């Protein structure tokens, strides 16, 4: 089940979410068709001016059909565009362009390549099955238009035809173009969408981490402010209990009041420890930051050893969250031990996280950090931690925003992640003024 805290307020999730998003706006399809109609009319006018003869009336009827389709869409637009409506519109475009191609010389028409436009649009907005179906139909119609084409004639009445070898090459190029452009456009679109979704998840993860840390500061402040009143209540209740020795019923109430005050103090003290990162604590030693990042995974099985002596650095929620994801990934696949080491040299701070697990798959090593890389390194993920997904991508994105460079490798004997910062990007002066406290949300 999706974690509601990862989504902004008001964004529907679960059963209330829309069943299907619009693959492409109808206004976009209409606009593209207007451009196509303008180009078709321009080609007809120029061809007639050059004295080239063809079946003019059927060509104008096909162009008029495209105009009528656009006017119908403009005058009675649907409330939303479904994938089925988009397929119908693009199918109309493929049929119309293929028919125009058949009426104007087939493969000898230099504008025949425009038949690739609808299937390319489909590849950028529809799923793979619908794109394949439209591509197969385009290839069939192109082949039919090539075989049944009406020839063009120049001003002298000579037939304009391609030699068989060139015609075969043109036909082959069109079929290859359908496959190549559709496949390339679909692949690029899928990757861009995956990256966009992953970046959104990264922003939500960081926002969640910042909210939790701000909440921790509020809890720590509340525990501090309420400590004195609770101590006073505890003291008065204890004195009342002593003085009411001859009234057992009232003494029991006073003891219960004292115990409740003690319990409240314990709860606030516990919450205060969980929220010890108050909003003034923005600088910490490197080891403290690494311990904070490793803390949620300390009891999950493998031993986490931290050997880090470094400067005081910015205690940035994004950096802590990113390091936590890297440590989580190491703990997930480690056999018995995870090592976290640091080194400062030549103006760089280097943090290395290594485990004794199976390491990264060699086939996926170059793609580590890409969004939605679902293949696992090997072995089952350990229980005991509710991972947020996209861990390595989120960690890589957040750390690179902080100025770090990441390297993923095998060795030691498992996986090794090296994070390197320029010292001037990560270190902080503990003696500098704290500045204003960030505003608290309600």
TrEMBL record:
Enzyme's top EC category: transferase
Lineage: Bacteria, Pseudomonadati, Pseudomonadota, Alphaproteobacteria, Rhodobacterales
Keywords, ordered alphabetically: ATP-binding, Cell membrane, Kinase, Membrane, Nucleotide-binding, Phosphoprotein, Transferase, Transmembrane, Transmembrane helix
Ranges of residues in domain Histidine kinase: 221-425
Enzyme Commission number: 2.7.13.3
Subcellular location(s) per record: Cell membrane
Keyword RNA-binding carried by entry: no
Record organism: Paracoccus fontiphilus
One of the record's GO molecular function terms: kinase activity
Matches recorded under Gene3D superfamilies: 1.10.287.130, Histidine kinase-like ATPase, C-terminal domain
Protein name, entry field: histidine kinase
Catalysed transformations (reactions): ATP + protein L-histidine = ADP + protein N-phospho-L-histidine
SUPFAM superfamilies linked to this entry: ATPase domain of HSP90 chaperone/DNA topoisomerase II/histidine kinase, Homodimeric domain of signal transducing histidine kinase
